[in-house]
Structures are given as C-alpha cells and as structure tokens.
Amino acid sequence: MTVPEKDRPELRTGDEDTPQAPGGSGRTLREAFEEARVEPDDFAQE
Q1: CA 24 to CA 28: how far, in whole Å?
Q2: Helix (H/G/I), strand (E/B), else coil: 7
Q3: Per the record, which residues fall in region Disordered (predicted)?
Q4: b/e for 11-27, b at 16 or more Cβ within 10 A?
Q5: CA gap 28, 9 in Å, rounded
Q6: Which of 8, 15, 20, 38 fits a disulfide with 33 by CB distance 3.0 to 4.6 angstroms?
Q7: Would you write out the chain's pLDDT as a tens digit for each of its 46 residues?
Q8: Half-sphere exposure of 39 toward its Cβ, with a 13 Å CA cutoff?
Q9: Positive or negative CA dihedral for 30, 37, 26, 12?
Q10: Euclidean distance between CA atoms 21 and 39, whole angstroms
Q11: Cα(19)–Cα(29) distance, integer angstroms
C-alpha cells in the first residue's frame, strides 16, 4: 500500500541549513588557482 503524497513526511537534504550567498564569489578561476597555490607544473603530462 502506498502513502498519499500529502501524508508523507517531508525529507530534508541538509542543504537548507547552509546559507548561500547570492550569485558567484566574484573571483576568476585564475584567482582561485593562485589562492590555492596551484601551478601549471601540477598538471604536467609525462
């Protein structure tokens, strides 16, 4: 037997409690890599 949609308990994903800033962070990918100290040599293919 199935439960009607209106009688089902509401499920939470956990994302509701995390505040999100509207829009993007405003920094470029280059700036993010610089902040993370990622260098081009980190991607060198052998």
Answers
A1: 10
A2: helix
A3: 1-46
A4: eeeeeeeeeeeeeeeee
A5: 42
A6: 38
A7: 676 777 777 776 665 555 655 666 677 888 888 889 998 888 877 6
A8: 3
A9: positive
A10: 28
A11: 23
Going by the DSSP 8-state scheme, the letter that residue 10 receives in this structure is P
**Its pTM surpasses 0.70:** no
Query: Residue type for 19, please?
Result: P
Type of residue found at 16: E
Phi, psi of 23, rounded to the nearest 5 degrees? 80, -170
Terminal-residue alpha carbon distance, the chain = 59
